[in-house]
Design a protein that fits this description.
Layout lengths: L3 E3 L6 E3 H19 L5 H21 L8 H14 L3 H17 L7 H20 L13 H10 L4 H15 L4 H5 L6 E3 L3 E4 L12 E3 L8 H12 L9 E4 L2 E5 L2 H14 L7 H14 L4 H8 L6 H14 L9
Antiparallel strand pairs: 1-2, 3-4, 4-5, 6-7
Protein name: Integrase
InterPro entries: DNA_brk_join_enz, Integrase-like_cat_sf, Integrase_catalytic, Integrase_recombinase_N
Keywords: DNA recombination, DNA-binding
């Protein structure tokens, strides 16, 4: 019959036009299945994990595209002998599994499971031996430390920028990438403080409000206004710029944000402070001020069931509601 086709697997005849529509829909469905948006940081991390996997298979002499339980178990043992921290090994293992699947490898479900058990065993072994690996979790930045860092910064253009990075970042419990991606128009000054629009984060866009500060050195509104006025920011340009000596050179990177924070900390003798210290610091300070879980999660863009946030709050709660209190010890 002219202009008609028989659908494969059925006896119904349809027009060529309808068949073409269904074919396009199938293509879109396949694209949807494959679509997984990833940040540049995630892509870099996966590429790094894959390079580690390539070193592993070359060293032990197994096929590159091996997705068996033995391959993953051996990977943990191999990385452990290299002295890698358990958290690093787990990240490498997960990244390698993702890359293997993208290459069409049928990763055995027991592979990552066996590897996780081996990682848990490594954690216990290291604990029994009293050995610490990795830099550990970033310490929470306290309000007193934030004040010290901010006050010590010079009133130069770079110093004003770094003070704004510190106070705005702390107030919104920002990730480094969120600060790096802010545009000038995303930071709005109001009578009550700052309204900040974070365009993209792990939990999507968010718009935290930062109340006007009580202390001049930790007030995000004052710090932002001083930086914006001194730098004559373009409303459509980046909120924070990088410097080459004393000259502004365009948008700052997430790494640049981290360098600014670490530099301000080192200037006052604080060790181990990173960009993540601000997120931990806001969470713990807010909990100490009796704010509830939901309020803190919304401010920092944490998922409702965030394990990381639960850990931050437990640090405070373990003293507020302690089993050894009031028992006559």
């Amino acid at each position: 019959m002219t202009g008609e086709l028989e659908l494969q697997g059925g006896g119904e005849l349809v027009s060529a036009e309808d068949a073409a529509r269904w074919a396009r829909l199938v293509e879109l469905d396949e694209l949807a299945e494959e679509f997984e948006p990833r940040s540049e940081n995630t892509l870099r991390s996966y590429a790094s994990d894959w390079r580690v996997w390539e070193r592993y298979i070359a060293d032990v002499g197994i096929p590159l595209e091996a997705g068996t339980p033995g391959a993953f178990f051996g990977f943990v043992i191999w990385r452990g002998k290299e002295g890698a921290a358990p958290s690093t090994i787990q990240r490498n293992m997960y990244g390698a599994a993702v890359c293997l699947r993208e290459r069409g490898v049928d990763v055995h479900p027991n592979g990552p499971k066996k590897a996780k058990k081996a990682i848990d065993a490594l954690v216990r072994m290291l604990a029994e031996a009293g050995e610490e690996r990795g830099r550990g979790k970033a310490p929470a930045l306290t309000m007193m430390q934030l004040r010290m860092m901010s006050k010590a910064l010079p009133d130069t253009l770079k110093g004003l920028r770094d003070r704004a990075i510190l106070t705005v970042g702390f107030g919104m419990a920002a990730r480094r990438s969120e600060l790096a991606n802010l545009r000038t128009r995303d930071v709005v000054v109001t009578e009550k403080g700052l309204q900040v629009f974070a365009r993209y984060g792990k939990t999507g866009a968010r718009s935290p409000a930062i109340k006007k500060g009580e202390n001049e050195w930790t007030c995000a509104q004052r710090a932002w206004q001083a930086w914006a006025a001194a730098s004559d920011l373009d409303p459509d340009g980046p909120a924070f710029q990088r410097f080459n000596r004393h000259k502004m050179m365009g948008p700052i990177s997430a790494q640049g944000i981290g360098i600014a924070i670490a530099g301000a900390a080192e200037a006052v003798g604080l060790v181990g402070i990173t960009g993540h210290s601000m997120r931990a610091g806001l969470a713990t300070a807010a909990r100490e001020a009796k704010h509830d879980y939901r309020t803190i999660a919304e401010q920092g863009g944490w998922a409702p069931n965030s394990t990381a946030l639960h850990e931050y709050l437990r640090i405070v709660d373990q003293w507020a509601d302690n089993a050894t209190a009031g028992i006559g010890m």
